[in-house]
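Quick one: histidine kinase from Taibaiella lutea, structure tokens please.
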Amino acid sequence: MSSDNPTINTFQYLRDGGEMGKLIRAYDWSENVLGKPEYWPQSLLTTLSIMLNSRFPMFLWWGPDLIQFYNDAYRPSLGNNGKHPTAIGQRGEDCWPEIWPIIKPLIDQVMSGGSSTFNEDQLIPIYRNNRLEDVYWTFSYSRVNDESGNPGGVLVICSETTRQVQAHHELLNAKNELDFALDAADLGTWDLNPLTGSFVGNSRLKAWFGLNADSEIELSEALEAIVPCDRERVREAIKQALTYESGGHYDIEYSIVNIETAASRNIRAMGKAIFNANKEAIRLSGIIQDITPEKTVSEQLKESTQRLEMALDAANLGSFDLDFTTGNMICNAQYKANFGYPADAPFNLQLFIDAILPEYMPEVVALRDKAIANKTLYHAKYPVRWPDGSIHWISVHGKPYYGRDGKAIRIIGVSNDITRQVNAQKELERIYEQARLSKEAAQLGTFDLDLQKGTMEWDERCRTLFGISHADPVSYEKDFLAGLHPDDKERIHKKIEEVYIKSVSNGDYDVEYRTIGLDDKKLRWVRAKGKTYFDEQDKPLRFIGSVLDITEQKSDELRKNDFISMVSHELKTPLTSVKAYIQMLMEIELAKDEFMKQVLKKADNQVKRMGSLIDGFLNVSRLESGKLLLNKEHFNLNDLIEEIKDDASLIFSSHVIKTTHCDTFTVNADKEKIGSVILNLLSNAVKYSQKNSAIHIDCSEHNGMVKISVHDEGIGINEQDIKKLFDRFYRVENNQNRFISGFGIGLYLCAEIIQGHGGNIWAESTPDKGSVFHFTLPLLN
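--- reply ---
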């Protein structure tokens, strides 16, 4: 290289080279680790000169950073919208991250002094044309030494063989598909060399003919398996096919008898001869098909056709076959009936077109053309006008069939009259719309919680009841729980957790609670009813329900409760006076008269009963107004149970009351109210069981809670009643013609008292076998 003007001398090596020579010359090498070209080593320049002026694809990595160069012949392998032209001057590792683990070991082998590599049809995927493509290469990696004789770079002389490899794969696939098709079709194959008389057949043909397993046999051996009466005819057919004038076509049916097993078959042989330039047959190849079952299949096909026709008739399905080339339309009687025509009436394509309501015709044609274009099933629904003027809906399913040129030549399918279904759908839509309007009129809000996806949907009314103004998806934590009144939040959250457990709630949800609008801060009372839906493993899937604004109703109830409380208090005073007068009368001489004694005793009982009723109403009113206070204290639950038991044994002398396992359980609770709960449960057990039967009180401890159970041997409770036992004013209807007094507030009060203590109360029962009422209380730590 001349030292006078190194730049000129350098670019003598880089001149020409087409597009890549121009790109290399225009590249700003001052920013590259190689530096400017005038300072490049002679070995690099020489290699680049050879590469750029070669029409064989070449690629060069140079230096420790493996800086990249390539020529125009290699350029097409990079595709469009890929690595070109940024690959020029780029580090190899930065350019080829997708294949670097594959090619880097080859580069290292050459750079470390190893021998050159050669790979043929190697799969090396590269990123090009906006995607990662499978590319096959035949390539050689060769070392290029620098001036000191050390490895300076790696020259890749390569050729992309993707098309050749893919063609080879396609050829193999085609052969495999052909073999599979022949095997699936149960076909034998054969190949005859007319010049040598050698005959080759596959294993199926040899098995049918009873020939040996040799790859080649004489034609005469194969002819021996043909029955004598067909043998000469087959020879003549082969001879004729070998003449150029015949076009080489061979198609004949004959019978064979297996040489080894004597099994007979009917065979159809088809083939084609190949001729050379002198019009001499050089090969006759083809297939054979066992047509022995053809007659049986024909009979079965006939029977199947009859069965199909019966099935179509039974399902009121009409069948049709429309030939596009001729316009002819073949259809059965039911198809005609679907269009309002009798079985013996003529029916054609024009009558079909005229029957369809004009406004639906464009859609019918579009669906048909789409099915033909996409080679898919054709399905359409449209109304037709019968000859009597009535409108009927028709559903059609069909399949297009195509000729050798790929054009649709016919469509075959079935139709049925779906007028009733369409009318039913319209009625269903009408009912749905009516239900929607009714919901809006009733101002019901609805919610739908998908427990699988974790999504929660509220309608506009439901959002209003929670004072939500945003249109974002509703959040259980941020919208629902945050919108509950603080005094109701824990109770409702617990109720929702229970509704997801089928064994606890059966998925039923019916609660009342207060909301405080997140945006409008308005206090509302609502009643929410819903249902959880479970899968076969009782896993909750969806929780759906409605919400009704009962603020006004609650206001009425509060006013009613205030009135009840006031009246109850007013009644208490005169009732207390009456009770005092009765007790005074019982002390005087008048009470010594047996008749008066009984009368006064009955009067005293009635006063006590009236007092209990008034106390119950007072408790209800206090509970509703939130004034039912709990005066908690530490006490031994067993002592309270024994005390209640002793009092109850005197009151309910007609029954035997027993206690078991009620050891020392200490609780912090309102002793008087817990005692009223136990007494109420005992009273119910007496009411609903026969005289002289036993009532059992059992106690047990579970997870820091004491469970008290009251068993009776009474008439039991139906399952539908158990769910409502603890509702206010609910009374069980019994089927034994027994009048049982009460207003249905006792169990309601019991439930509220127990829940106020942080416990639970529930019942189990079997009709005619008695009931068990359970309640739990937290044990004192």
